[in-house]
Amino acid sequence: MGFLLLLLIILGLVCILFSLYRYIQKDEYRFNKAVRRESMYLYENDGNVFITVRGMTFIGQCTIKPYESKYRVTEIFIYSKSPQPLLKNITKEDLYNIEEQLYTKYPVAELKWDRPFAELMESI
After folding, report:
1. Within 10 A of 65 (CB to CB), how many other CB atoms are there?
2. I need a surface site. Which of 70, 79, 92, 95 has the fewest CB within 10 A?
3. What is the pLDDT of residue 13?
4. Number of domains in the chain
């Protein structure tokens, strides 16, 4: 009887540790961790691209169309839902880094920025 109880406790601990490991491996967890640390992270989910830079969150809506006999992401509209005070932390270099990461992942995509980022990109 004591052996079965010990076996059940060990199996329960293994299940808890496995669940914790799976949670840490999720992109959403890594993304939230990058937001808190104000580092850069990019991941895809349901046709959207989520990007964080310096604590600011950007969302890119992907448009998929046929391109050279394959379906590819041809356009990404990027906007932000972060509060306005975080805007002062963002520089042109940060936006260029975002573009570089996206062009690496989606080489034929055209990037379109929402206001005020489009204005910042045009004021070169």
Report:
1. 10
2. 70
3. 92
4. 1
Tell me how far apart the alpha carbons of residues 45 and 29 are, in angstroms, rounded to a whole number: 13
- The chain-wide mean pLDDT, for the chain, equals 83
pLDDT above 90: percentage of residues in the chain = 5
Domain range for residue 70?
2-122
Q: What is the secondary structure of the chain as a DSSP string?
A: -HHHHHHHHHHHHHHHHHHHHHHHHSHHHHHHHHHHHT--EEEEETTEEEEEETTEEEEEEEEEEEETTEEEEEEEEEEE-S-GGGGGG--HHHHHHHHHHHHHH-TTPEEEEPTTHHHHHH--
Closest CA to 53 of 40, 37, 36: 40
